[in-house]
Amino acid sequence: MGKIITLNGNGAIAEAIRQIKPDVVAAYPITPSTAIVQYVAQFVADGLLDCEFVCPESEHSAMSMCIGAAAGGGRVVTATASQGLALMWELLYIAAGLRLPILAGIASRALSAPINIHGDHSDSIGARDAGWIQIFSENSQEAYDNFIQAAKISEDFDVRTPAMVMIDGFITSHSTENVIVEDDKDVEEFVGEFKPLYPLLDVEKPVTLGSIDFTNYYFEHKRNQIEGIENSRRVILKVADEYERKFGRKYGFFELYKIDDAEIAVVLMGSAAGTGKEVVDELREKGEKAGLIKIRVYRPFPYRELQDVLKNIKAIAVLDRLMSPGAYGAPLFTEVRSAVYDLKKRPKIINYIYGLGGRDIAPDHFKQVFSDLEKLKLNRYKGDVVNYLNLRG
Amino acid sequence: MVTLRELSAIEDGFVAGHGLCPGCAIPVILRILLRATNDPVIVSNATGCLEVCSSMFPLNSWRIPWIHSAFENTAATAAGLESMYRALVRRGKISGNKNIKFLAIGGDGGTYDIGFQALSGAMERGHKILYVCYDNQIYANTGGQRSSATPLGASATTSPAGTASYGKVQWRKDLTKIIAAHNVAYAAQGAPSRWQDLYNKAKKAFEADGPSFLNVLTACPTEWKTDPDQSIRLTQLAVDTCFWPLWEYDNGKYRITYFPKDKKPVSEWLKVQGRFKHLFLEENRYVLEEIQKRVDEEWERLNKLVSP
Amino acid sequence: MTEKGWKELTIGTINLEAGNSLQNYTGTFRSGEKPIFKEETCIHCLFCWVFCPDSAIIVKDNKVKGIDYNYCKGCGICVIECPTKPKSLEMVVEEIYL
Predict the structure, then answer these.
(1) Which residues of B touch A64 (CB under 8 A)?
(2) Does residue A249 carry a pLDDT above 70?
(3) Under an 8 A CB cutoff, do A56 and B121 touch?
(4) Which of A24, A166, B7, C46 is deepest in the core (most CB within 10 A)?
């Protein structure tokens, strides 16, 4: 039996890190993920976690150390946010290309300029094409559960792909909640021992990795790489199933909230889902058929499974906590819209960019979105496809 | 003293079939380096000539475990490997009896410049790795751009000599001293022409109880504009002119490991290289004098550093 | 060499064949000249061996046995570094078979 502990999002991820027993943790402090690193340092100092805890001189070197360590053949963890994740950018691609199961806890935060330390998804979704599995959490409990599952998903021999688990900067990273923390032994048993695959430290069987490919092999290697993240679709569900059976909390590619008979729905990721659900409840009491879809797994994007859900909905608003300058809508919107294109009967779909740099999204804003969706459903919507929520004109 | 006969009996960790230019001295450094320890070696290789030419998929020239991650993170990658090794040995997951050595290797671009921060960090943290820079004083892999190791007066593609310029206007960065200033266990400058000196230094560096660093001059016929057969001679001339003195920093003490019998004028080294050709025009004579002056001053300064 | 399809590749750019560049005959780099070995004058100091960038000097039981032209790129370092008088290695114009 686990126990209920009061933790913030960073603390929840740190607990998960302690329990999965990484061999190497290499991380650099950055707001708002710093506390993850500090907690881990304290665990090590107190003898609660036996790992090599290293403080490199930058996030670039932190991820580089993770790559070296993972290539050596063991479990590796880091944590970062914002500019730190951006500084890791080239290494994120390399970690994925070398198929190293590195785990990263990300407290999503805005990117400069202007500098801002608060939460949005610019950093994490900015890394969407790097080849990592990307799992978003609504709250501390999910952060804890997701991180443990990410280890098992990432290290699966059919997957062997790095994974990052996101919490929203400050909103989740610094909010204290009650979190069920499972017994150390149970988590250890669930995740299992790390199994190396072609480890560099096996000097008896020398291998090389990170070769230069010319035009005759690069394309083949990149296509080969995708197999890992494609296989993760199956493994994510399998691991979620095992997790539910062991610990009783249910996960999938996304969470559906009052969606069965919904005619209008919002699609979003992260902490704003809580507020959204409140508003859905309110609207439901008034008899409106409103629902909410919270995407948990952004990479691989569960387009097929989403199609099944979205086919019965008349009007959809996708809420993005970042912008994609010059694009026709922000990343989650373009992804969802692309998924519904295959449907025979396509729902109408609009985009709201919200919450940049930690800007609040309150129940009233959700109400505005749902009221727009009511109009959209009845072909009376006169607004734009791409909108900004809670932004002064 | 080790003999070449002894060395030739040791199997190669780095084999033929690599694509380095004819006369490139990098493999000569590797030949000596990889034989300087009996323990297994794992290599972290920076982007650069060596990495590209030794790992052209599906081929590779390494009989020992090898990784290339990126350009500027070679020291960090090696430090990650070393950290994992320590973790797994401590947790009893692998045996520590093998005494694995971690070799990070890169050119002057990956070491003096873009990889400088990661190198400094790894040295400061005390990872037990050996970082080797093969210094050909130029970004050779991208076609001869100046680096902070490029000598004053050299014509490089981004510091070209022309009617209004004599080439690179800055002196080179004294990286070996900077690394020594990290109070590492061992740091030294070597040259392939002095193979025995290089072997001794590599041995000390591998066995050092902490981070170690070797800065080894290499010759690049392609970018130095020299005949390929002159490569070893050129590294010796750099040593004999004291442009590239051979010295070491061992447990806090500086020592010069080779004193040229007759210190040659630096122009002896410069005049045989196409990249310095323009310095011998009458209007650039003053640059030659400036270079000689600086070389003399630095040699003198180094001699003063040496512990009595 | 047949090039592999993406399904045949090992995960993560891993190359399991350590040192397989021996298949790559870099002797093709030579442009008109090659060194020849003259055993009569050789003192087997092995300078040619240690300074050859292409592992092309064949040494067995402490003795130079010759040059591996599969890998020799014709740089000529071995000739320059050979200390004997006359030299035990000499650059010659390479016969080209058309």
Answers:
(1) 69-70, 73, 76-77, 80, 118
(2) yes
(3) yes
(4) A166
Convert A228-241 to b/e letters by CB count within 10 Å (16 or more is b): bbebbbebbbebbe
Residues 6+ apart with CB under 8 A from A206: B62, B63, B64, B65, B66, C18
Whether the CB of B141 is below 8 Å from some CB of chain A: the reply is no
Q: What pairs with residue B105 in β-bridges?
A: B45, B132
Which of A58, A64, A203 is opposite residue B80, by nearest beta carbon?
A: A64
Distances (CA, A) of B234 to B191, B217, B224, B231, B272: 10, 10, 10, 5, 9
pLDDT of A317-343, one tens digit each? Answer: 999 999 999 999 999 999 999 999 999
User: What tokens appear for B132 in the block?
Assistant: 């080797």
Give yes or no for a contact between A76 and A63, defined as CB atoms under 8 angstroms apart: no
Per the DSSP assignment, residues forming a β-bridge with B162 are: B165
N-term to C-term CA, chain B: 24
Place of tokens 């979190």: A179
- Using a 10 angstrom Cβ sphere, with 0-12 exposed, 13-18 middle and 19 or more buried, the burial of residue A139 is buried
β-bridge pairing A102-108 and A163-168: parallel
- pLDDT-derived band at C1, boundaries 50, 70, 90: low
Q: How many angstroms separate the CA atoms of A247 and A241, rounded?
A: 10
Q: How far apart are CA B158 and CA B170, in angstroms?
A: 13
Measured between alpha carbons, how far is residue B89 from residues A74, A82, A188, B97, B122 in Å?
11, 34, 20, 9, 20
Q: What's the pLDDT score for residue A1?
A: 78
Q: How many CB pairs under 8 A join B and C?
A: 124
For residue A65, give the chain B residue with the closest CA: B80
Strand partners, B247: B256
DSSP E strand boundaries for B218-307:
247-250, 253-256
Summarize pLDDT for C41-76 with one digit per residue, the tens: 999 999 999 999 999 999 999 999 999 999 999 999
Q: Do C12 and A217 touch (CB under 8 A)?
A: no
pTM, two decimals, is 0.98
pLDDT reported for residue A102: 98
Q: How far, in Å, CA of C60 to CA of B81, rounded?
A: 36
Q: Mapped to the 3 state alphabet, what secondary structure does A117-140 carry?
A: CCCCCHHHHHCHHHCCEEEECCCH
B70 touching C (Cβ < 8 Å): no
**What mean pLDDT, rounded, does chain B reach?**
97
Question: What are the structure tokens assigned to B281, written together?
Answer: 């025009």
Look at residues B102, B98, B109 and name the one whose alpha carbon lies nearest to residue B75: B102
pLDDT of residue C83: 98
Cβ–Cβ gap C6/A220 under 8 Å: yes
Residue A32: asked if its preceding bond is cis (omega within 30°), the reply is yes
Average pLDDT over residues B274-299: 98
- Cβ-Cβ contacts under 8 Å, A206 against chain B: 62-66
Q: Which residue in C17, C50, C56 is closest to B32 by CB distance?
A: C50
Average pLDDT, chain A: 98
Which ranges of chain A would DSSP assign to H, the alpha helix? 9-20, 34-45, 59-72, 82-87, 89-97, 122-126, 140-155, 184-191, 218-247, 272-285, 303-310, 331-341, 363-377
What are chain C's partners, defined as 3 or more CB pairs within 8 angstroms?
A: A, B
